[in-house]
Recover the amino acids of this structure.
């Protein structure tokens, strides 16, 4: 995105939070804004530019100029899917505890994954008194990887409906587990409520994360023409305005608090009113949002391996690869974070697709790695030996072959030789 467009989009986001306002359904939040110099009318908060600039000044920054090898990396399987595709029967059902354990086994035994998260959201057979704390506890039991929790406490999963108390107990449990009290030991994802709002549950989780000094990631999940404007740019600016408002609240309450942004918004299918994530438009939204964050040096990631269908088929593979690799063609991003196994636009997970998505990621990393461009001074001698022998099978080295060629363990590369 050209610099003028980025600057204009940022100015419009500032105008929105100052003149249109953002709804905060918490008196605590509104009082904090009021004391900080924002105008409050009912549940709406109007954040002046000077207050936003102060918040941006205390937000920890990311250096986007640091060069790095481009790669795709996995966060966790499924993200937060409440349903599972039974790969044996083809039926879609609510996830259960056994699914969650199986998900952690995949997460732990693959080097592609770098985080842990209750990817099978709210298992149907979770009978713990505090179901949210129980899901975080499962993550600590079954994973040694960094907890990056996209799930949040809700009135239906928290003990006695106490969302703040449940979230606070879960965060404290992670601290006790690692016995680390002076720095963040996890990241809590916070999804605002489009259009332009933060509801009670969202703010209870957000305040609990601030009070426990845990890192926070704000990620809007807006749907174009439903909960955000119908245009790509309109959705991006709406999402960025929501994130700026949340960031202002975090920095008012805890200056310097580690905060990152991401965008899980997409277009909607107007025929079905369903989100369409396996699309170029979804990637466009993420990339423009990413470049707005880059403009302000706010930490941000782009995510991929999405899918909209309910079967592990050609469509699932095409959408996974499209959303994983397209960002590298549109912007100077070093990493794309994947959630293998996604189907039905984050609503469903498939273990079969997760394994195939992992292989897609390995292929993607092979594409991004490129070719060893060094000219080999020994090549003439190698060619002379091959010319005499009529083949290089007994002359070349497997070390160089494996360096320059990816050998898949899953996809069919046997060709016609295997046909009867």
């Amino acid at each position: 995105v050209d610099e003028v467009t980025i600057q204009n989009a940022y100015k419009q986001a500032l105008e929105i939070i100052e003149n249109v306002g953002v709804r905060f359904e918490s008196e605590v939040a509104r009082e904090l804004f009021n004391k900080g110099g924002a105008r409050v009318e009912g549940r709406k908060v109007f954040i002046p530019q000077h207050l936003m600039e102060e918040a941006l000044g205390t937000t920890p920054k990311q250096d986007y100029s640091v060069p790095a090898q481009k790669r795709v990396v996995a966060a966790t399987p499924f993200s937060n899917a409440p349903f599972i595709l039974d790969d044996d029967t083809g039926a879609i059902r609510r996830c259960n505890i056994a699914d969650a354990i199986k998900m952690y086994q995949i997460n732990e035994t693959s080097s592609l994954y770098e985080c842990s998260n209750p990817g099978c959201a709210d298992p149907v057979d979770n009978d713990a008194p505090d179901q949210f704390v129980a899901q975080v506890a499962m993550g600590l039991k079954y994973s040694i990887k960094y907890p990056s929790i996209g799930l949040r406490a809700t009135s239906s999963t928290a003990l006695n409906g106490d969302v703040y108390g449940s979230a606070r107990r879960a965060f404290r449990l992670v601290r006790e587990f690692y016995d680390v009290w002076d720095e963040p030991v996890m990241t809590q994802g916070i999804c605002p409520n489009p259009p332009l709002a933060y509801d009670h549950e969202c703010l209870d989780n957000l305040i609990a994360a601030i009070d426990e000094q845990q890192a926070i990631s704000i990620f809007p999940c807006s749907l174009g023409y439903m909960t955000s404007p119908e245009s790509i740019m309109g959705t991006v600016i709406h999402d960025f305005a929501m994130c700026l408002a949340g960031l202002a609240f975090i920095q008012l309450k805890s200056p310097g608090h580690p905060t990152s942004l991401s965008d899980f918004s997409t277009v909607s299918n107007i025929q079905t009113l369903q989100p369409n994530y396996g699309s170029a438009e979804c990637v466009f939204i993420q990339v423009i949002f990413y470049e707005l964050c880059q403009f302000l040096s706010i930490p941000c990631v782009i995510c991929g391996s999405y899918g909209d269908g309910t079967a592990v088929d050609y469509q699932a593979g095409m959408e996974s690869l499209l959303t994983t690799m397209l960002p590298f063609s549109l912007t100077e991003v070093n990493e794309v974070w994947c959630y293998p196994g996604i189907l039905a636009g984050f609503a469903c997970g498939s273990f079969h697709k997760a394994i195939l998505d992992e292989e897609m990621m390995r292929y993607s990393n092979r594409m991004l790695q490129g070719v060893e461009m060094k000219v080999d001074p020994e090549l003439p001698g190698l060619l002379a030996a091959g010319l005499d022998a009529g083949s290089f099978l007994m002359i070349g080295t497997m070390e160089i072959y494996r360096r320059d060629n990816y050998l898949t363990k899953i996809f069919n590369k046997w060709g016609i030789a295997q046909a009867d």
